[in-house]
Amino acid sequence: MNIPEQDKELLKGLASEDRRAIEKIYRDNYPMVQNLILHNRGTLDDAADIFQEAMIVLFGKANNPHFELNCQLKTYLYSVCKRLWLKKLQQQQRLVIQTDDLEQVISVEEDLEQHEKRQLSFDIMENAMSKMGEPCKSLLEAYYIEKKQMQEIADRFQYTNANNAKTQKYKCLVRLKKLFFAQYKNTL
Amino acid sequence: MDDILLADTIERYIKGEMNDSEKTYFEEMRQKNPELDQQVVEQIFFLAELNKYSSLKNFKHSIHETVSKLVDEGLITKNSLRGTAKIIYLWNKHKRTIAVAASIAGIVSIFSASTISFFSNNKNNNIKPLVEKIKEQDDKYKKLEKEIGKLNTNSITPKIVKPRLESKFRATGFLIDANNNFIVTNAHVLNEAPHQLVIENSKGEQFKAISVYVNTDNDLAIIKVIDEDFKRLPAPPYSIRKGHTDLGEQIYTLGFPKQEIVYGEGYVSAKNGYNMDSVYCQLSTSVNEGNSGSPVINKRGEVIGIISSRETNAEGVVFAVKSSNVYNAIEEVRKNKEYEKIRITSNPSLKGTERVGQIKKVEDYIFMIKGN
User: Residues of B with CB below 8 A from A87's CB?
Assistant: First the structure.
């Protein structure tokens, strides 16, 4: 199947967290998904939530170097949203989703499983982060999330030099690691 | 090497900031020192996780900004104010009436306290669901270290280990169909697991599950195991009785009032449950928190009920959902096309086997239910 060049470009943009790509994907696909959710006992809020989660699934895919889109982006998003919504309905003990599928649907089970795994790791890390005190938390966020230079961080947190800030950062990192692994238990 | 120096060295190594001789030296050290090698692998894995975390975090932030822009434009509509925003909004709106409300609340609490003592026959006050809330212990770090030791230490990207679900409670459930997919438990058990649901065997292996049927009227729920790693067993050795319960029938139960399977014996002491509720039968046996969802099995190897609750005011008075309800539940589940092939086993191979032998055959089909 021929994948439109535009779709490939959008995915690249997504992988590099480009806002324009995010916005374009929303503009092109959101109405379709909102329609799906509203016709299946969902609310406007549900639609916003489901689409947002689908975007995160797509982001995970886009970041995988081996990933190739093998259907149109539109089809992919529709399939993911439909599956996510079906799961949500099942959790609410309503078992059936009824749609006259005008859109083509592909199987996304595997992707969603990957997505759940990623989400779980994310939650564990978030939890570990939330348990860190200050200034550790801000220090780690500045370095690993905002990607600031050590010198800039030293200035912001008023360390006398970048080296001291660095030592402190590693101390914090060791603590974060312990917290993270304390939750991240293997089931074999 | 101390932790901090090591963290620094490994980070420079990963980022490619070492010069050639330093790199060669470091790699030699890894070769010679398995302990160091393990720490490097662990650190690489952790930094990769941290990296994924930060990129997803940044991405979520971008999404939020995009969404609020599109909400302003009207492409996305949201109905409600949410979360803290909503609470603050309500608080501001009703600030002035709070004082009045507080005084009313005082009156109401006195009033409701008296109603409870007046209607002390109220079902919910006297019987207790048997889900046990648990707190998993924090001995996880050591186990993880072992696991990481087992990883292929030459590979730069260690394989992803399956995270274990932290559960807030423990209950019991048992397999009912020939294909080993569907498990019966209590509806009130699933109230504890609005987000994630797993079953766990006595080895501590967890498998993902989803709920496919919940009926709070007869406290029955059916969940489906969806984990690929779940190994199929032969069809369950017990059958599920369709007909009535006999008074005085000897029974036994198997469940998880603790982290290991526990056996209990007793007999059917009444044909109806609390307040003559015909959905349940009454047993005389001993059960505890965590027994919710345990099968009640007679000597012919038929499941005749599912443990649901016990009376708090009396010793050994236990209520079980009658097994005939399971058939109605299955009918409901079959209405979904995806599940129309579900088949309950009907030939008890336990008949004529003595008790200890029966238990050996049955125990593999009974699982802990956990979730959060």
Answer: 210
